[in-house]
Amino acid sequence: MTNDRTDARRHRQALLQAASAIFLEHGITAPLDLVVTRAGVGRATLYRHFPDRVALVLALVDQSLDALEALAKAIPRDRTTFQILLQHLADILAKDPSLADFWRVIPSDNAQRICQLKRFRLMFDRAVSDAIEGGTLRGDFRSDDMLLVGGMLGAVAREPDADKRRAMAARLVDLLVSGLQPVDAGASR
Predict the structure, then answer these.
(1) Using the 8-state DSSP alphabet, how is residue 182 labeled?
(2) CB under 8 Å to 94, separation ≥6 — which residues?
(3) Which residues 6+ apart lie within 8 Å of 128 measured at CB?
(4) In sequence order, what are the residues at sequence separation of 6 or more whose Cβ sits closer than 8 angstroms to the Cβ of residue 89?
(5) CA distances to 48, 56, 61, 154 from 72, in Å
(6) Rounded CA gap, 162 and 94, in Å?
(7) pLDDT tens-digit profile of 91-148?
(8) What is the pTM of this model?
(9) Which pLDDT score, from 0 to 100, does residue 154 have?
(10) I need a surface site. Which of 28, 78, 102, 172 has the fewest CB within 10 A?
(11) pLDDT at 187 over 60
């Protein structure tokens, strides 16, 4: 029984890695047969783990959120946390741009999608409030605004060249961090 569970975990991970690579190469709507071939498993194995594209994409999003959450818990809580999380989000999207498009295949009323959005916003709540209190983020910014920021980063993630994509993501983060700083009350606009 243990070997069956080990094989199942290995197959699931192989499918997730293959899906990430295929979606990167061919887009989020690529044929799932390409995922099966890349993973080296049968179609039945794919559908045993992921009954449809939505389930597969939701699992990829969960993986990314897990990584972002682990970082959020590991970094010290201070006024730089927001910038670190923002950079990590940019890195995730630069590495796997298909994640920027996952909303295209997941219905907006999907319960897991709704939970993932809430999880994403909650992850940034603490970092946003710490940055505002620390004077590194404008006071009207909210964790809900991270959906807009994610959309901007997602647009950069569509660059096909990986090196350019990383450079563009880094530049966007730099622009966002600068642009989101509090405006000096005495400065003219």
Answers:
(1) P
(2) 156, 157, 162, 165, 166, 169
(3) 82, 137, 141, 142, 143, 146
(4) 68, 149, 150, 153
(5) 32, 24, 16, 20
(6) 7
(7) 888 777 667 778 778 888 999 989 988 988 888 898 899 999 999 999 999 988 988 8
(8) 0.80
(9) 80
(10) 78
(11) no
Residue 100 and residue 163 in contact, taking contact as beta carbons nearer than 8 Å: no
Q: What is the pLDDT of residue 185?
A: 40
Token pair listed for 112: 């897991």
User: Which residue in this structure is represented by tokens 């970092």?
Assistant: 127
Asked if residues 169 and 90 have their Cβ atoms less than 8 Å apart, the reply is yes
Both tokens assigned to 109: 């009323």
Q: Distance between alpha carbon 148 and the CA centroid of its chain, in Å?
A: 13
For the chain, the straight-line distance linking the first and the last C-alpha, in angstroms and rounded, comes to 68
